[in-house]
Amino acid sequence: MSVVSDLPAKRRGPSLSDRRARLNELSSRHRSWSILVGMAIVGAVLPLIVQFPPFTLAQAPNAWIDGFTNAGVFVLLALGLNLVVGVAGLLDLGYAAFFAIGAYTYAYVASPFGNSILGIDILNALGGPNNAGIIFWPMLLVGAGVAALFGVLLGAPTLRLRGDYLAIVTLGFGEIVPLVFLNSDRITNGTNGIGGLARPALPILGGFSGIDPWPYYLTALALVTVVMMFCYRLIESRIGRAWEAIREDELAAAANGINTVVAKLLAFALGASTAGIAGVFNASKLVTVSPDQFGFVVSFTILAMVVLGGMGNFWGVAVGAFVIYTINNVLLKTLNQFFDSAGIPILRDVDFIQLQFLLYGLALVAMMLLRPEGLFPNSRRRRELHTAITESEQDELGSVAGTTEEDLPQ
Amino acid sequence: MTAVPATSDAGHASPRVGLGGVLRIVLPILLLIGTYEYMGPEQFVNALTRGAIYALIALGYTMVYGIIELINFAHGDMFMVGAFVSLSFLSFLGFTGAITDIGLLAVVLLATFVVSMVVMGVIGVLIERFAYKPLRRAPRLAPLITAIGVSFILQNVVQLFYGPYQTNSPKIFPDTWFIEIAGARIPVLSLFIIAVAVGLMIALQLFIGRTRLGRSMRATAADRDAAALMGVNINRTIAITFLIGSALAGAAGVVNGLQYGVATFNDGFQAGLKAFTAAVLGGIGNTVGAALGGFIIGFIEVIAVVAGYGRWGPAIVFGTLVIVLVFRPAGLLGQQLGERA
Amino acid sequence: MSPDVLDNPPILVADQVSRRFGGLVAVNKVDFTIPERSIVSLIGPNGAGKTTFFNVLLGVIDPTAGEVQFRGRRMIARPERIAFESLVWVMPALVVGLLGAGLAAADILSGRLLAIVGFVALMLLVASLLLSIIRPIWYQKQLERFGIFRSARPNDMVAAGVGRTFQNIRLFQNMTAVENILVGQHTQLKGSLVSALFNTPGAKREEYNAERRAEELLKLVSLQGKGNEAARNLPYGDQRRLEIARALAANPKLLLLDEPAAGMNPKETQDLVALISKLRNDLGLTILLIEHDMKLVMGISDRITVLDHGEKIAEGTPEEVRRDPKVIEAYLGAPAA
Predict the structure, then answer these.
(1) pLDDT digits 0-9 by tens, C191-242
(2) Which chains touch B (3 or more CB pairs under 8 A)?
(3) Is the Cβ pair C168, A404 closer than 8 Å?
(4) Taking a C-beta distance cutoff of 8 angstroms, is the pair B234, B227 a contact?
(5) Is-above-0.90 flag for pTM?
(6) Inter-chain contact C21–B1, Cβ cutoff 8 Å?
(7) Would you say A86 and A317 are in contact if contact means Cβ atoms under 8 Å apart?
(8) Which of A94, A335, A394, B244 could anchor a disulfide with A170, C-beta 3.0 to 4.6 Å?
């Protein structure tokens, strides 16, 4: 860069960065408000724009709103997984298991079959299936709690071990939980799953319906807003700092008084509880739960959303999840239909929905190699991931100097 | 750390023959006899066959983990791709059924093993070169995520070519050949598979223990930086590790096709999980342990089937994994120096 | 630096500490005490076992024999009967769970009862797991009644009042200087999950105070105004001092410095000596140094202990140690200073 071109930039620089810093400080001091306002704007704009072409060409506005609600479920999941993977640096490959646990928790409480298994007739006690939906709201917390419980059960033995064991144990867990729901047919109804779940209801406004997408949409919006707010408050607290410290250097974190196992367990359990909430909501929307809704591809999809969105950055991850879900479920479907009806030779035979997982796989590898911080990076995370790459390019011997007894396995 | 001979409590160094020592030898033998009595000879051989396949896959996990501390999630899928390579090769040659001519069978089998192992070895090296090598000094999470990505790429590429359903794999080894052992009819195929697996394992042990390359692998696994200082070519050593591990997965794919006659694009997932459990069970990084772990997992699965809980097999294996991690994280044959949190 | 500080009561006592790695004895039966408000040093040639000993004192690695007391409490020793710990708490859950499973298999229990049994077993299991991880004080006391002892972890040592720095700086490189010190204050802050989620006034006040304290600490190590720099962008000497500030944030009584002058130029070393003296004289800290820089050690220490091949070969004032023939021999006849 030449000196000449540097000059004006230098003169303008401080005031610009100053203004930006002030803006940052303002938004972080009033983080909750900025999230609230941001989500309100997003929530208002989305239904508005789908009333017009080109969106109406793909599907009807109500179908869009319903799709956004489903996307909201994935945004919730991605936010929770981001807490585990992005912030605390723990690779959880069985995240869908907690989603399943939340969903089945709701199913047991809010369906005739579930009640008969529990031996408690909750639905009738609350005035029949149509009025019992009121239980949905406390069940959000119960689902979160039960999922967190399983998170602790799984995390407690494994989080003491080195990090990569967690990845494989969660992978196994994610495989086993649907298997348990599938095989214990006496109490889970096996493959068919549990149906006839009560839809949520509000005291005066009455129950949600399967035709009107708005109540679900607003509920999803509210859930995402609250979870997002909690996530930001957490990472700006003592607990969040402990997570980031552990991710950067576990030994140094312990040497600063952080009980690393407790902190990791907390991140793991909180991530699980977010999935539990998403599970309760999703079950109440689908009105049925079955083991095939929670396969490994779900965990994998959520992981791809977090990685592509930018590990550690909650807004980025939310946008990533939203965009990926919409691409999957609208764009690819539309492409399929379009090429089918247009009858273009090769493209007609390509199943774009089947291709999506290949694309995710390619995207994950490409992101890790080229842009590990994701599309919407968190600044600290970018620094961390990028030094690592440049260091790896250095002469391998160069790093020997930094190796000491402290680095030895103990 | 200094090399001071242990003077104070040297007794620990020499093996003490006490009750524990005796139990350690007697208990496994009793277990084995009990298992045999419970399952009968046919199922016993069946368990050994399954175990041999898991052991071959587990070797790749354990070698890669030993040398670069990466759980190579794509390794189970390498086994699956190996199965498809072998079935494609056999179909290409025009074989669809059993070959009863022993001479021809031997030639075709040999060719299939060579092709599958070479192709898989090359794919393994390429994956290492382009997906893992650039991330060698990156935060731990990065290569793990990459490995998951590679696993999905492999599955979906295969699915793209062969579709989502089962593909028939030519069972060229006649399954009508039996030999009578102690009144039981044992398929020759099973014995062949066990022999192949054990032969490959012995070859691997000899390679690691006796050759120059094997020595550099051990050195790299023990301390990569020190090995580099001593003149070991780290990049080549890691590439060879991937080559061997993937070739073994390719061999496992071949025998799997011979034994079961079908392959599906997502076969690698479950097999990989079980093989990884086997590697942890034996002590990750320890090749003998991985082989032992593979056979143990094979037995656990077949016992579950015999007991009528076949569909719970994966859950039982997973339970085993968690129990091992909790109570003996370094595995059966690993040094008990579990990392403290 | 008067010798009488050596008569102070000990803040830390290491009793016959040994650590083996397989056939290697890295530390062999070392006795070591640190009097309150003293500055003591541990020296020795490369590979003498200094860092291993240091790591044992900090709970990073368990000793194979011996024990360490800090402020009169046994903190570190070979673990005793820890296998029984799981029995104490996991057994009830297992018994309830197996009983339930057995009864269910016999079709005696069904429906609601089965759910209740399962739930109770699960809760017991979770409770036992959480207890064994969080290890509250009352739980540890109960365990000690059963003769179960587990060595302190590094974080327990920090909570008890031992701070440390690392030989090769281990700051959180991607955090700012202030954030590093905020992490250092972890044990001093009380913010809980609930207070963080609901951003209570108490939590806000605590965060505000923590940031003020971080600035004070930066000032103490002459890094005022650099609070918002990323740690990795600070010059080497600043990083060393930031690490000390981070260790001080936990209000330690004893500060363990692992080669604090490594890689420093003479001017920086001089400043460091002044800082260490200030920490002892003004803040009343006790300091243990592990050093290679003989000049630094000789000038500042009340007492020096020399390790070689994992054994203590000499101990005394700098003058005594300097003249000790064993020490001279250990350093191959080339003692510095």
Answers:
(1) 888 888 888 888 888 989 999 999 999 999 989 888 888 898 999 889 999 9
(2) A, C
(3) yes
(4) yes
(5) no
(6) yes
(7) yes
(8) A94
